[in-house]
Amino acid sequence: MGSIDPPKAEQNGTAAAADPDRKPAAGDAMPPPPSAVKHSNGTAAEPDAATKRRRMSVLPLEVGTRVMCRWRDGKYHPVKVIERRKLSFGDYNDYEYYVHYTEFNRRLDEWVKLEQLDLDSVETVVDEKVEDKVTGLKMTRHQKRKIDETHVEGHEELDAASLREHEEFTKVKNIATIELGRYEIETWYFSPFPPEYNDCSKLYFCEFCLNFMKRKEQLQRHMKKCDLKHPPGDEIYRSGTLSMFEVDGKKNKVYGQNLCYLAKLFLDHKTLYYDVDLFLFYVLCECDDRGCHMVGYFSKEKHSEESYNLACILTLPPYQRKGYGKFLIAFSYELSKKEGKVGTPERPLSDLGLLSYKGYWTRVLLDILKKHKGNISIKELSDMTAIKADDILNTLQSLDLIQYRKGQHVICADPKVLDRHLKAAGRGGLEVDVSKLIWTPYREQG
To answer: Which of the residues 9, 46, 175, 261 could staple to 15 if both were Cys, CB 3.0 to 4.6 A apart?
Structure first.
């Protein structure tokens, strides 16, 4: 599952600072490394010759080294060196390092310069293969996840060997930034673009057909010829400036593949679907006089035996925290209602996806329980909402709103408790105006 609207930093555990995306301003004072020596007057002392020699002796840092690194909040955080590359200038020790902040999600991994690292904090490098032989054989998959859970989020279905292969292949972001419409966006994860794009740190996307190019001039030439002003599909929803387009992966194969390449930059998935024929893509847009600009999307299998009503979901970073992710979730359930089916998102859910779904399920179910008079069963709730019974049961159990009596589940709906849970679940985001949805289920099309 993909990323939706991210919760606040303290909720998802990906940042310790109040504003994790704030970059220090030019005038901000950078704190000294944690191990810096200070004079009695409080100023940082120059390291002595022995200290300098000790620091130089650990260079260049090996892959796997753990060290403290100055992050964008100006503070030092523990990191693990994932990769290194030699700079084209300087001596044999001049490298830059790709690091994983062990406190944060992988989306914050980045290349850093040597001066950001506190060499006095370098830990002895452990040969991971030896470590695996010693400790890995008797470890359960659950224990492995606990040790490096930021690296395995969303990959609980993988065995240890597949997980290591996935991490090795995707450990370094290949594209640092993209330009899409009026936004320049920093990427979060690796995406398997064709080999000819291996040397590009930035890509330029046409925001309408999603073709991508290496240079700005190529994009400018392309935009003069591209006649699209919206995704190449059927508009199935229009309310105010919001529009939703249904794109058939079989009819629009290149667009579907380009969308997957783009989305993978912000989704830490095991695989990227090259065979888009089996999927429908629902692309949400903000519309103005220049056209319909992509905000986010979700994909859905045309035929799912597991009752999945959503495969991947993404709100693009510039549009996050505006309720669009919740809108996309609600929209997927409105389609399920039109189909006369119950639905559930494809597992595994990402950290952000799980939080968003829990919030959606909580709000929808508690709203019904507040208004309903008398008893109501989980089956009735499922029929009303198109939410799968297992998701309803798990949600109510997590809220301590269900008990098991005489062989059946009984919902306990104390109004004060419902109000407290509703308040904790937060606002519901943008509403889907069902009267504006004009759509025929896929099985009935054609």
So the answer is: 9
